[in-house]
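Good morning C.,

I know you're traveling, so I'll keep this short. The sequence:
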Amino acid sequence: MSPHVPPVTPPEPLATSGTSDRDTPAYPGAPAYPSTPAYPSTPAYTGTPAEATPASGRADIPTNTVWIWLVVVLPLVALIPLFLFDWSTYLQESMYASLYPQQAPYAASASLAVSAGASAFSFVIAGLTVLFSYLDWRQLRARGIQKPFHWAWSFFVFVVSSGAVYIIGRGVILRRQTGKGLGPVWGWIAVMAITIIVATIWAVVLFSSLAPLIEQLSYSTGY
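The tokens, ready to paste straight into the viewer:
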């Protein structure tokens, strides 16, 4: 026979706050609220106004004038005397005068005339640089450029023999105001490169033509 197992009495349910689960009312679920409306994304800007146009907003003003380009090409005009004057004959006479004193007065007068002519031509080029710079400055103001680089800086041509100070300063100021204006600067750099090349070739050709004379004089004088 199997052992006797006593019956198990199930535990009584716990009552909370004096009420049973059957007395607890069933509440409906929380109402479903609509989701947050989707706002359109922020439009993508292509760039700030400061990036699109210069600070002054004068990008529509043309910055090239005929006067500034005349200032740029003036160094080429200064090369003209190199090809219009007979420098070979002049130098030959100067060398002969240094060896033969009787010819010294003629050589001295020729040297004085050449020096005076070269100085006068240099002053003409410098004066034209100042004049064209002033006309360029005046035309830029008439077009609406606020405080363009002052033309008085062009007087440095009498110190450095070039309008570089006005050309470069003008380009920097116009670049800040209009976003352009560096064309004459690059043009001036090209002109200076051409000037140096032409002057170098001229000097080589000139001294090559004088080489036989120098050798002859050295032989005759024993040097």
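Safe travels,
E.
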